[in-house]
């Protein structure tokens, strides 16, 4: 999608207790 959406998404996922990179 974008460059800023990559790190932001990973951070949110990590906070969710999954720590996965989509």
Automatic annotation (TrEMBL):
InterPro entries named in the record: Ptyr_pPase_sf (IPR036196)
This chain belongs to the protein called Low molecular weight phosphotyrosine protein phosphatase
């Amino acid at each position: 999608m974008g460059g800023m959406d990559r790190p932001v998404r990973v951070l949110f996922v990590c906070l969710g207790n999954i720590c996965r990179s989509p």
